[in-house]
Amino acid sequence: MNISVNVSAYFLQQKDFVQILERLLNQYPELPKFSLEIEVLETTALENVSNMSELVHLCREMGVNFALDDFGTGYSSLMYLRHLPARTIKVDKSFVRDMLVDMDDRAIIEGILKLASVFNREVIAEGVETVAHFEALLEMGCEQVQGYGIARPMPANQVSEWVLNWKGIDAPFAEE
């Protein structure tokens, strides 16, 4: 199971960020490479693309992936997508929420999925709260989602039990 961690712009901009991360990773040698993913807000990543790109490359050498969080809400640009080697793009929930009734939001998601495919990136749709949203995203080719429809936030010590007992996408919506 992969773990994603949101990291603030302030912490990413520290000169010793890579050294701190390396020291922390060395404390857990059993952690498989690339099972840790750092999520950074799109707007944070775009503030200084060349520095962020270098940081991402250094972290990838250590076996850590990056995700662009809230994609589409900042100043999305093909140039940034090309030069910022984040493995994952997370579609912001503001597009997912209304995609069933707003064809512009649906078109944005479809466009992001196509761009991600061209740039060989993974996509995760945020804010999936209903079976209808999940099914529409799956139909568009988005197989990774997150949101209250999957699970509510939970303490780390409850994750293993949740994984063992999860019955699929329909289970969380049974009360609807």
TrEMBL record:
Q: For this UniProt entry, which residues form the secretion signal?
A: none
The record, for PROSITE patterns, names:
EAL
Q: Which residues form the EAL domain?
A: 1-167
Q: Which SMART domains match?
A: EAL
Gene3D superfamilies assigned: EAL domain
Give the domain of life.
Bacteria
Among InterPro entries, the record links this protein to: Cyclic-di-GMP_PDE-like, EAL_dom, EAL_sf
Which GO terms fall under molecular function for this chain's record?
Answer: cyclic-guanylate-specific phosphodiesterase activity
Looking up PANTHER family in the UniProt record yields: CYCLIC DI-GMP PHOSPHODIESTERASE PDEF, SIGNALING PROTEIN YKOW
Q: What is this protein called?
A: Phytochrome-like protein cph2
